[in-house]
Amino acid sequence: MPQITSYHKGQSNNFWNKLKLFWFRKKDKTSRGRKILKKILVFFIWILALSIMGILIVFAYFAKDLPNPEELTGRQVIESTKIYDRTGKTLLYDVHGEEKRTVVSFEEIPRNVKNATIVVEDANFYHHFGIDFKGILRAFIYNLQGKKTTQGGSTITQQFIKSTILTPEKTYARKIKEAILAIELEIKYSKDEILNFYLNQIPYGSNAYGIEAAAQTFFNKKAMDLSLAESSLLAALTQAPSYYSPHGSHLNELKARQEYVLERMYKFGYITEQELKIAKQEELGFTQTKEGFEAPHFVMYIKEYLEEKYGKEYIEKAGLKVYTTLDWDLQQIAEKVLADQVKKNAKNYNANNAALAAIDPKTGQILAMVGSRDYFGEVYPKNCKQGKSCLFEPNVNVTIRPRQPGSSFKPFAYARALQKGFTPDTVVFDLETEFAVEGAESYKPNNYDSKFRGPVTFRQALAQSLNVPSVQVLYLAGLNETLNLAQDMGIETLKDRSRYGLSLVLGGGEVKLLEETAAFGVFANEGIRNPTVPIIKIEDSKGNIIEEYTKKPKKVMESQIARLISDILSDEEMRAPIFGSRSNLYIEGLPVAAKTGTTQEYRDGWTIGYTPSLVVGVWAGNNDNTPMNKEPGLVIAAPIWNQFLKQAYEFKAQSSKLKAQNPENEFTLSEEPENFTEPELVVANKDILNGKFATEYKVEIDRISGKLATNLTPPDLIEEKIYPQVHCILYYLNKDNPQGEENGREDSQFNNWERPVLEWVNSLGAGVFYNQQPPQEYDNIHTPENQPYVSILSPINFQDINVNEANIKIEAEANARLGIEKVEFLFDDELMSIKYSRPYSIYYQIPQIITEGVHFIEVKAFDIVGNYSSKKIEINLFNFNY
């Protein structure tokens, strides 16, 4: 196949040899005609010299004000900014002003593009010095004849000059300037360089300037990937870009023009007959106008950031390459899943819109962002007033718009409470309770199902999203302290704290979906926050990195606290009583933690959940806050969340198997199930913190009197009795030091919390013995006054007794106010005998095994209620034989 060749100057001396022969031939007197010819020749030489001089003067006149060719090519070329996905393979958007352009090297432009352009624009490009004299002469004659024509004989070199610095008016002055610059440019640069300048400069229509922008605009591919048919079509556009536009109404004319280009390429030997035939038959599919604008809400989010930081005009012309954090595969999954579910929501629940944000909690990078069901859709209902009465507004990015989060905000309050020393097993009461905080109106929340469940643990209350216990938790955690924690975790919208009260835990404030999703990422990442980032790096037009992502982790929560929250939010069994078993918060084989939210009157539905590697937030509802058909976030938002997470993991697992090597910046997910780290066992020093709502109040009771035992109550008459006490949590602890010794009975909320608990206890009826009061009086039977009197009459203390005596008479006296029941006789603490009536005397035979020396005799007297006294004496045994 013929190749484009460079022009080489040739030189011939034939003309000048003949002229010398004619001029210096010997004079012939008879040759008068020759003299005349010489005069004519001299005349024309003068004319030629004067003409050349005139041309030089004209050139000098116009050239003095023209730019240097180096300035022409060294100027800052307007290039549009490209926004890519995280791998750089998918172009999401081309940010441009009036000119959308990406400069590429000569080597990146296909040979077919070069050849097609030359044959249709300047067939002799490689064989002239920048000016086509025949074309200029033709244009001159046509203009003298008064004919209107666009034939000006402009070469590619001239067209480049005209499109860069000269105005397009058709005047001789402009033509002269054009010619001068063309010659200068041809002297300074090679033909290949000039052709490259031209192909990166010319307009192709639809704001596409240069071959790369044209390829992206009309075929959604890079110039280097263009086929012969596509190359010839783009070359066909340059004569009249608007008229021949693939997005216009002259497609038949465009096809004819393309075939003309192909015929020219064949004529000049650049393609074969077979290639000509195939190219003519190739069906070309043109990229529609809205294509080339992928992930539109995310792109506009990026564009807004770029304009704010670098300026709108700069990013439209600077040719930046912006490599975002977006995962194009996950984005496509998100868009489809969301659109499919919104169709069902709109039909069944009057929820006409939804939004989704997905973030890598380990880096903070945004992986997917869907701001509405369809960026390119139409408002609904038709003719609604945007910002006020539209159920659906396509261009509004709900992921960055403040909305009430409902119960999805609850984990922040529970996390703060756990930080203060409360435990997941801490008991609070789910009862109708009035909350009256100083400076605010009293507040009496209800549960989603209008039912109350009595004593519940923090774990139950959060997993089942119970409202009344959660309001108590926020009070215990502290409103300001909870707001501080939420802010540390990434929520920045709750700034005017004077607006918020205890209803905040039920979604009383407004937050952004993107922010709350990122904040949940702190739980997923075990207490470490990575700021949300949408961009990996930005390069300028020369490839210099002007901005680049660097990881900036910050510990904002203890790992144990984050693990406890994840443990609760992933507890399928614990949430089942409210959400059902295997609900949309459950994914087979994939441990997930999740929290739903539903605002008052069902205006918003939320679901935010995560694995250790991916956190996803979903909102569903109507743009104008119109209530839905009384369905919670579990029904309208959770299906989107569930399907996205499920498909994301399935796709990434399959994708990793097919790829030998992951591209740079590829986001991957583990094929194996990711488990949350188990939290450490938490044990506190109070029953109420350890899951026992009924605290055991133990007392020692005298079985005879039924009153509190004293030190005088006989041990065998003392029994331990338990009185279960049920009170609100403030009865047992101070909210600011829950494991300390102080209680909270002086707290301003105590009475409001205690009252419904006591009412609940009373409502339990017979057979339940909570809150029975133990005796307040002490044993009044076993007292000093009632103790028996006892004395030993015989033997006497320290008496000497012969061991050989047969019996020892032991005689005692005893009496008591309540009467003597019995008298016990003991020898060396061994019971000898018991007497139940008078006389209180016995005879004791000393056993032979008893040795000589000191021994003890004791007498105990007991009355009829167990009071007793004793008397002990010492005797001395000796062996004396008569």
From TrEMBL:
Coiled-coil spans in chain: none
UniProt superkingdom: Bacteria
GO CC terms in record: outer membrane-bounded periplasmic space; plasma membrane
Location, primary (coarse class): membrane
Localization of this protein: Cell membrane
Entry keywords, A to Z: Carboxypeptidase, Cell membrane, Cell shape, Cell wall biogenesis/degradation, Glycosyltransferase, Hydrolase, Membrane, Multifunctional enzyme, Peptidoglycan synthesis, Protease, Transferase, Transmembrane, Transmembrane helix
Name of protein: Uncharacterized protein
GO biological process annotation, one example: regulation of cell shape
One Gene Ontology molecular-function label: penicillin binding
Family to which this protein belongs: In the N-terminal section; belongs to the glycosyltransferase 51 family.
InterPro entries named among the record's database cross-references: Beta-lactam/transpept-like, Glyco_trans_51, Glycosyltr_51/Transpeptidase, Ig-like_fold, Lysozyme-like_dom_sf, PBP_transglycosylase, PCN-bd_Tpept
Source organism of the structure: Candidatus Portnoybacteria bacterium RBG_13_40_8
Domain Glycosyl transferase family: 93-265
Transmembrane segments: 40-63
